Recover the amino acids of this structure.
């Protein structure tokens, strides 16, 4: 076994194929790799369904029972609060204001933002820029697991 010729074979197996005639270790390595490529390894052929999911592919492992249980708990809390207060959910819809009242409120909110003190407007503008800078920084970052 010549260490230099073995290294040359490992770097370019096609160009140094004659090396296998004189080196038993490299020949055994090549046979082992060929058997694994052909699917006759001890583990047998593998199916893509048998492989574990990566963290970003976890759609099949979401805890839907937990989501359903959470929705049921929220519904029970709402039903309990309706029972304690003595009202019904249908009564809430009877008290919904008309579309004119809603539109008037939205117009007043818009004018309130325009007539707010200048310092408030500067704070809102600065917060807008900060939040968007954070979003841009997060979008420019490489996703974990894909480019690692």
């Amino acid at each position: 076994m010549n260490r230099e010729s073995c290294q040359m074979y490992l770097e370019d197996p096609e160009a140094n194929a004659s090396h296998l005639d004189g080196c038993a270790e490299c020949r055994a390595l090549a046979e082992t790799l060929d058997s694994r490529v052909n699917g006759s390894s001890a583990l047998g052929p593998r199916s893509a369904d048998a492989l574990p999911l990566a963290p970003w592919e976890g759609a099949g492992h979401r805890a839907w029972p937990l989501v359903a249980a959470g929705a049921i708990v929220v519904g029970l809390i709402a039903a309990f609060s309706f029972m304690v207060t003595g009202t019904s959910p249908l009564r809430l819809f009877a008290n919904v204001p008309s579309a004119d009242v809603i539109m008037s409120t939205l117009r007043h909110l818009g004018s309130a933002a325009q007539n707010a003190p200048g310092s408030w407007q500067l704070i809102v503008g600065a917060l807008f820029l900060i939040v968007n800078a954070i979003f841009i920084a997060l979008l420019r970052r490489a996703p974990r697991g894909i480019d690692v």
About this structure: Helices lie at 3-11, 24-37, 64-85, 89-94, 99-114, 118-140. Residues 44 and 137 are 45 Å apart (CA to CA). The chain has three domains: 3-42, 63-96, 97-148.
